[in-house]
Amino acid sequence: MQLAVLSPLLATGQIMPRTLRSASAKQDTVKQDSVRLAAPQGDIETTIKYSARDSIQLEATSRIVHLYGDAKINYGSMSLQAAYIKIDYETNLLTATSLTDSTGKDIGVPVFVDGAESYSAKRIAYNFKTKRGRIAEVVTQQGEGFIHSELVKKNEANEIFGLHNKYTTCNLAHPHFYISAGKIKAIPNDKVMSGPFNLVIGDIPTPLGFLFGLFPTPKNNRSSGVIVPSFGENSLRGFYLMNGGYYLALNDYIGASLTGDVYSLGGYDLRLSADYRKRYAYQGSFGIDHTYFKYDEADRGGSISTNDLPGILPPSERTYRVRWMHSPVAKPGKGRLTASVDASTGQHNRIAGYNSTADRLAATFNSSISYQKNIQNSPFSYSVKLRQGQTSGGLMNFILPDVSFGMTSVSLYEVLTKNVPTGRWYEDFTFGYNFTASNEISQRIEAGRNRFGASNRFGDVGVIGASAEADTISLNDFQALWKNGRRSATHNFNIGLGSYKLFKYFNLSPSVSYSERWVDRKFTYSYNPDSNAVDVDTTRFGRVYNYSAGASLSTNIYGTVYVRGKRVEAIRHMIRPSLSYSYQPDFGDPFFGFYQNLYLGEDTNGRPIYQQLSRFESGAPSTGLQSFLSFGLQNNIEMKVKAKSDTTGKTFEKVSIIDNLGIRGGYNFAADSLKMSQISLNMNTRLFKIINVGFTSNFNPYQTDSLGRNIDRYLLSGPGFKPARLTNAGLQISANLNPQARRSDTSVPSNLPTLGQDTNPFEPQYVDFKIPWTLSIDYTVNFNRGLGRAENTINNTLGVDGDLNITDKWKISYYAHYDLVEQQIASARLNIHRDLHCWDMSISWTPFGYVRGYNITINARSSLLRDLKLTKRSSSSGINYR
To answer: What region holds the LPS-assembly protein LptD central domain (predicted)?
Structure first.
């Protein structure tokens, strides 16, 4: 082997190795030597570059190079740095070690880098021909985990084999916990495998372990693997293993999991869920749930109070639930297919409600699949929707399909004349249009009984009377369901008349609206005295319309008082009075034909009996003439004060005294009595940037009889001056006492994301130790006046919510509501959290409320070892045994 480039000193062969100087000694002034070795014919594939700060020694006969002091070698994608490196060209072996200084401290610990992998060890041996290595006392990182090994071998496939290992996610040199394994094999960016292992916490071996270990370490953080279940107890279904199963990472875009629950008192749950995502295109999720619920009282050895159950439960039940969410990325000129599907069998949510508060409290579930597109360079758009609604009792409604076509509001002047507006009053007129056609199918079977208690005689398809619900829908019922379906088309015309200035200070905004609805059935009633029944004839087409007109008038009034004090410069009062008038004809008049006054015979005194019936199932406008004048008065009071940070006295800031103080009411000129509406008085403000105050109230201007009913006589007409009587009021005061709230605006933003499904209240949540303490207090009082002789009711509660860092590792959070009227705690929760560096400990206790119990969890913080945890929990779900 020949040296292509040699330093002059090496050429003479006079350089001899020297011992390293101590760390406190003066730095060596010898210029760093470097040698570049060209790739000859043989085992070396590319050029080897090496250098040393202290000295380089070449043994030509044995073909060995010694590098002393900050030695470095670069060979392709491999690099090595250490205090001492030996290159043996006969055996193709690189050897690197650290050296000790005069104090006995190791310096120049070898660092080996091969591609993206990096190793630090006391001694490294690497064969650059076979690409195999042997590393002693090494710490390697694989994903989120660290492997401490006494001895590591590395093969040409970059796989690592360790002897006497510690596998942990703690990044300290002496980890708080680790998995002790005699042998470990690590495949970079794939997984870590081990033989028999056990868990060691604080250098104390525990019996927790297994015959083998498998820890995925994928580069893209997506990998298939087993989902370890959690253990617990539920008073309704017994002991359980929950959320155990398998996760399958199909590719970078799709992942699926199959999980289940098993209960000791019988029953099980199965869940299949998948999520998918394509960047810049769409994302979504899909899931199917199956529950087998078993409720056998004999298994419990006692009875259960049905007063504590939200409904009577069946002895056994199989239920299903399907969910699908799909959301595309909006692109100009492209259509959007969105889906939000949530459908289940009738009993599913009642049973699932014992594990999920959201499922238990949900009254309805709605699903929709829609395609929507805006036509570019035009005001037109269209959409097609498939919708389904379901109540908690299982009643389903389908709309198949719901087709819409719309036109956004456009200026009539620009469309008709193609001219640029010049500011004339009529140029602000706009027109918009929306058309919707739908077909509604309901899981509802009409009974042959009308609202009068007599059986109906249906002409064609009569639809009047009570309904009974079916438990399920089958294909055999489809023809009947389609026949009883409801088809309609709605036209909405959006007419804008602009806004105008009157007398320089008033804003006038007139308005007019018109809508029309076409339906597939219209009823005509006739009374048959012989059978005391109502005959119903059905017409296949009906047309109903609605229109109204109105106008609003408003202005702003400002008043300023200049104080010119030390801090307060001025106080400003702003008043916003407003008047609005709306008119709608009496659509119950026979002229319109929307309602029918049906003659039902005579009473005992010989007087005729009439009843007004709508000739349409739904969508008929309200009866009665509407000529309504509403009024409002909004107030805002604020101060102009000198800024504390300004020493010149020329910088001011605004301080609000009352954000809003408003009074609203109305008067219906067309009503035959009780024309005045209730009067509302509301106020809200924020004090000292931390206290929010809100007040709401309603007043009745009329006198009442002994039963609490209004009579057509104002309170002002009675004895004394009493303009109105308070009917209900509410006061809410909340304060955020965290010092950070004084320095920042804590108002709630308007673009908060929607909340997802609630999590288990006993599961440990994320805790931020950077905030030393928080404290929020809220006080609420509500008053409702009883009708007639009924007593007034007052609700009075005090709540507190916050947390406290006892130390930089301990945090306590708390929440409680106290009912001042009942003098008892309505709800409370206490959490204790301990930061164990690479571990977390969480204790949660909920002594009051529907779901009561406790949870103690000690778990590894890393997501890689999230199933490595100890949990003890108990919950009662509000059910008491007798």
So the answer is: 192-702
* Residue whose structure tokens are 């779900």: 877
The CATH class that applies to domain 8-225 reads mainly beta
* Per-residue pLDDT at 314: 64
**Angle 730-734-737 (CA atoms, 0-180°, nearest 5)?**
170
* 428-480 pLDDT tens trace: 888 888 888 888 776 553 333 333 333 333 333 333 333 334 444 555 666 66
Beta carbons within 8 Å of 166's beta carbon, 6+ residues apart: 147, 148, 149, 175, 178, 179, 180, 200
User: How far from each other are the two terminal CA atoms of the chain, in whole angstroms?
Assistant: 93
- Dmax over CA atoms of the chain, in Å, equals 140
Residues in the chain: 882
Residue 697 has pLDDT above 90, yes or no: yes
Which residues have C-beta within 8 Å of that of residue 300, sequence separation ≥ 6?
265, 881
* Dihedral-angle region of residue 478 (phi above 0 means left; psi in -120 to 50 means alpha; beta otherwise): alpha
Question: What pLDDT, on the 0 to 100 scale, is given for residue 393?
Answer: 56
Tokens (6 digits) for 743: 């320095």
* H-assigned helices in 447-575: 478-483
The per-residue b/e assignment along 255-277, b for 16 or more CB within 10 angstroms, e otherwise, is bbbebbbbbebbbbbebebbebe
Report the 10 Å Cβ neighbour count for 235.
Answer: 20
Secondary-structure breakdown of the chain: helix, strand, coil percentages, each rounded to the nearest 5: 5, 55, 40
Q: Which of 748, 747, 798, 809 is nearest to 776 (CA)?
A: 798
| 8 Å CB contact between 513 and 547 | yes
* Residues 611, 614, 617, 619, CA torsion sign: negative
Amino acid at 307: N
DSSP state letter for 531: T
- Only one residue has tokens 């008491």, namely 880
SS3 300: helix
Q: Where are the domains of the chain?
A: 8-225
Distance CA(412)–CA(422), nearest Å, equals 14
Neighbouring residues of 569: CB distance < 8 A, sequence distance ≥ 6: 562, 563, 639, 640, 641, 642, 652
Write out the two tokens for 694. 């809100």
Is residue 761 reached through a cis peptide bond, with omega within 30 degrees of 0 on the bond before it? no
Predicted TM-score of the model (pTM): 0.59
Average pLDDT over every residue of 717-725: 82
pLDDT tens digit sequence for 149-182: 888 887 877 788 888 888 888 887 778 888 899 8
User: How many CB atoms sit inside 10 A of residue 651's CB?
Assistant: 11
CA dist 555 and 577 (Å) reads 6
Q: Which tokens in the block code for residue 858? A: 């000690």
CA angle 776, 781, 785 (to 5 degrees): 165
Q: How far apart are alpha carbons 767 and 813 in whole angstroms? A: 10
Residue 208: Cβ within 10 Å count: 13
Task: Output the DSSP codes for 613-677.
Answer: EESSSS-PPPPS-EEEEEEEEEEEEEEEEE-TT-SSS--EEEEEEEEEEEEEEEEETT-SS--BP
Is residue 579 within 8 Å of residue 565, measured between CB atoms? no
Bridging pattern class, strands 533-539 and 457-459: parallel
* Residues 108, 110, 112, 117, CA torsion sign: negative
DSSP letter at 417 equals: H
CB 364 within 8 A of CB 392: yes
CA distance 715 to 720: 9
Residue of 781, 728, 772, 760 whose CA lies nearest to 829: 760
The answer to whether residues 615 and 542 touch, using CB atoms and an 8 Å cutoff, is yes
Q: Exposed, middle or buried: residue 649 (CB in 10 Å: 0-12, 13-18, 19+)?
A: exposed
